[in-house]
Amino acid sequence: MLGVIAGDVIGSRWEWEPIKTTDFDLFHPLCSFTDDTVMTIATASAILRGRPFAEAYLEFGRAYPRAGYGRGFQKWLAASDPAPYNSLGNGSAMRVAPVGMAYGDVASVLREAERSAAPTHNHPEGIKGAQATALTVFLARHGVAKDEIREEIAGRFGYDLARTVDGIRPHYSFDATCPGTVPEAIIAFLDSSDYESAVRLAVSLGGDSDTLGAIAGGFAQAYYGSIPEAIGTEVRGKLPADFLEILDEFDATFGAGQS
């Protein structure tokens, strides 16, 4: 799970100043965790405590109200009786990685990914984005070969994964939807050679950089088994104590490769 958070923190610097290169400093004084991290922690908390996803999202979202949420989610947090708002935004995908780590079979991963999306992102593309992300994490952590992951996700969800980062980058721009983010994050992971290269490739697309970094970072940690110690130490130093407690409990329970 720290792989998701590290990708978020690294990409946060470039969310509003997109770059088109992998040659950048990983950390900058402006780097911080965003809504991607808050909601990923919330998802992990819901799984650990056996409580509804919506309840956890409300708790953490209201506790950290200035994390950069989209307008729809801000309204949802402020509502007295929050209801799904048919979103296909990438918020359902950015927060779902813990589902891919926690559940032990494909059917359970797909079911829980849908449940995690449904309180807010109940548009079919929002649900599909969450399921594709969670299933990619699941396959990656079980050591499935990249070509097999590509074939499975493309076949099941209809994403075009025959592209490359180098082919996408010149024409890609900011896109906060699942259809415009999830396939690109998967491709960044598939093109990578290690954790750091996955995040660099994702950010270099020049899109919604924190979310691309977060999603690709989750895949990469699951697949490669760990993240570099220096990155983990830097990122942990930026997190509040309650996040670290949940992160460590989740990793101890489900195993996530923190170093």
Number of strands: 0
The CATH architecture name reads Orthogonal Bundle
Strand content is under 5%
Number of helices: 15
State the domain count. 1
The CATH superfamily appears as: ADP-ribosylation/Crystallin J1
The chain-level mean pLDDT equals 96
Helix-strand string: HHHHHHHHHHHHHHH
User: Any idea of the CATH class?
Assistant: Mainly Alpha
Largest sheet: none
Radius of gyration: 16 Å
What is the helix fraction of residues, given as a range? 55-70%
Shape, principal axes of CA atoms = globular
Your description of this structure?
- This protein has 259 residues and is an all-alpha fold.
- The chain has one domain: ADP-ribosylglycohydrolase fold (Orthogonal Bundle).
- Helix content is 61%, strand content 0%.
- It is built from 15 helices and no strands.
- It has helices spanning 2-12, 35-49, 53-63, 71-78, 91-94, 97-102, 106-117, 124-141, 146-157, 165-168, 182-190, 195-203, 209-224, 229-236, 241-254.
- α8 runs antiparallel to α9, α11 (182-190) packs across α13 (209-224) and α12 packs antiparallel against α13 (209-224).
- The longest helix has 18 residues, at 124-141.
- The termini are close together.
- The relative contact order is 0.19.
